[in-house]
Amino acid sequence: MIGRKKIITGGLKMDKIRDAVNRIVEEVLPHTCLYCGKELKGMQIKFCKKNCANLWHYHNNEKYRERVKKQSREHYEKNKNEPEYKLRQKEEFRKWIAENREHFNDLEREPNRLYQKKMREISEKKGYCKDCFKVPAKKGFKTCEECLVKARIWGKRRTREHRKKVMENVHEM
Ligand SMILES: [Zn+2]
Ligand SMILES: [Zn+2]
Fold it and tell me: Domain ranges in the chain?
């Protein structure tokens, strides 16, 4: 990484200094934001905005990351019972989910799968429905009456859709 280099002027001519500075700007300094890749303008040296700098340091600088984590933990501990704070957190979380729907689904997938698996095991042991976990399973089945009907409807729909797709392909050929 390039720090602020001290340019020693003693004995150097101004145009040489200017050349050196230009060279640093052209060849050594990045032309795009290190975090988001947007083109840099004017006095921007490495990042296009403060937030990009913060995020970049968060991902690349362990000490900085630990400090931020500690501060936000302290902030959370201090405010967690304030109704206004809770509301704002909820709003922000909702907004974040809306903007990062796919990433959120990815994060949820594995815990969801594990939860379903665990619940299925518990239900099976207790003789409960393995789909809704709420009521005892129908005799001789692993699911309750209601879930059985639901599964049949789904099965029929799937078959119908599959048939439709096959027919469409045939027509296309
Ligand atoms: Zn940026
Ligand atoms: Zn059920």
Answer: 13-59
CA 125 / ligand 1 centre spacing (Å): 54
Cross-strand partners of 20: none
The full DSSP string for 110-153 is HHHHHHHHHHHHHHHHHTB-TTTSSSBPPTTSSS-HHHHHHHHH
The pLDDT, as a whole number, for residue 8 is 56
Q: What is the pTM of this model?
A: 0.44
Q: What pLDDT was estimated at residue 6? A: 55
d(CA 143, CA 123): 10
Task: Find the 39 Cα to ligand 1 centroid distance in Å.
Answer: 8
Higher-scoring residue by pLDDT: 146, 7 = 146
- Integer-rounded Cα radius of gyration of the chain: 30
Report yes or no: 32 and 15 within 8 Å, Cβ to Cβ: no
CB 131 within 8 A of CB 146: no
